Every structure is written in C-alpha cells, then in structure tokens.
Amino acid sequence: MMSTESAPAAQSAPAALWRDGWYRFARQLPSPNYGQRPSATRVDLVVIHAISLPPGAYGGDAVQRLFTNQLDWGEHPYYKTIEGLQVSSHFFIRRTGELWQFVSCQDRAWHAGVSHYRGRANCNDDSIGIELEGLDGESFADPQYETLASLGAALLQSYPIQHIAGHEDVAPGRKFDPGAGFDWARLQQGLGCDSQVLPGRTGLA
User: What pLDDT, in 10s, does the model give residues 46-73?
Assistant: First the structure.
C-alpha cells in the first residue's frame, strides 16, 4: 500500500467515511491487482462499468473471485475466453445494492485498460473505477442507483472529482458498458451535480 505521504489522499475526507482510501460502508476484499498512482496524481475521474460472470448471470461470487485471481477458468466456457486476465476495480455494486471494495482509492486499480478521456490517456492513473453488476445495454436495479448515489456523493466530497464517465466513454469502440440501459439523468439527480461533470448526452440539464 502507498504511504499517506506519497498517495493522492482524499481532500478533507471525513474520518468517519474513509480510512487510507477504504470506504467505511463497503465490504472489503483486497485485490492483488493494483499499483501505485504516478506521483502528484489528481484523482478527478470516476469510471462506471458493468460486469457479470458469466455474462447475464447475477448473484454468485465470480466477480469477487476474478478480482482476486481466484476464478476457476474451467468452471464455465466463457471463462476460457478471459483466462489469465488480471483486473480489478475499486468498487463493485451488486443488484441488491451491496457494495464491495477491492482497492484503496489511494491506489491504481486495473479497470479501464487502454483508455483516453478529457485529453489524458491511461485513465487508470487518475480515476476511481465502479463496477455495477449488470450487462452492457441492460437496465440496472433501483438499489444499485441508491448505493451509487451515496458512494458518488462521498467521492465528490472527499476527492477532487471533476468528471464521471462510462467505460464506453474512455475506451470508445473497444468497450460498451455500462451501455444504453444506464440512466445518467438518474445518477445526475441522485448526486445533484452539474451536467458538465457527466459525459455529453442528451437529456441532461
């Protein structure tokens, strides 16, 4: 883990909510798939993803096992197509609204891959990744939006977040999540933020 001297620590983070980049209201399951952020990094981007393993299957522990390098590649035919993949995200929100955290927000999770946004490449360096249990283009559950709003509010309060985008926005043509089923207007309403924080989409005021 990075020391507080070198890490881009939360700005005036309420002690009751955060400890060394770990969120109080998340279930913690540390992933080995992380690294240090570049020095003097300004963490100003949140990237929203969708994930389910196998695709469209909800409620199991496959995502947790993937992010901790415990997934049995022979357990399902789809897993053979991602065999050896080492990835992580800071947060994972289940359909029930249950929140998991795998990497401290002070550290660099491996969620965005080859990416570019707001004039900068390598979005993993200065972003926080949030995975929603779901499928590209499909709708998401009410409890997920509730958890996302509360987590997003805590991030906006504690980090210099200026942008919230989808994986499809930072890796266009390569990734398509969270997709058309994600309600950006609902997220904006839940956070009470300006539309300029969110990716350019119609219907946002």
Answer: 999 999 999 999 999 999 999 999 999 9
Residues 6 or more apart in contact with residue 128 via CB below 8 angstroms: 43, 45, 46, 47, 90, 91, 105, 109, 155, 159, 161
Q: Is 146 a catalytic residue?
A: no
Write phi, then psi, for 32 (nearest 5 degrees): -80, -5
Q: Are strands 27-28 and 99-101 parallel, antiparallel or unpaired?
A: parallel
Give the C-alpha distances (Å, rounded to integers) separating 110 from 69, 97, 152, 196: 13, 22, 19, 26
The share of the chain scoring above pLDDT 90, in percent, equals 84
Number of Cβ within a 10 Å radius of residue 76: 15
Question: From the candidates 5, 75, 98, 131, which is the catalytic residue?
Answer: 131
Q: Which domains does the chain have, with CATH numbers?
A: 18-197 (3.40.80.10)
Q: Is the pLDDT of residue 202 over 80?
A: no
Taking CA atoms, 166 is separated from 6, 29, 38, 182, in Å, by 28, 24, 22, 9
DSSP state of 36: P
Reduced to 3 states (helix: H, G, I; strand: E, B; else coil), residue 155 is helix
Tell me the C-alpha distance between 153 and 102, whole Å: 19
Using DSSP, state whether 38 is helix, strand or coil: coil
pLDDT at 8 over 60: no
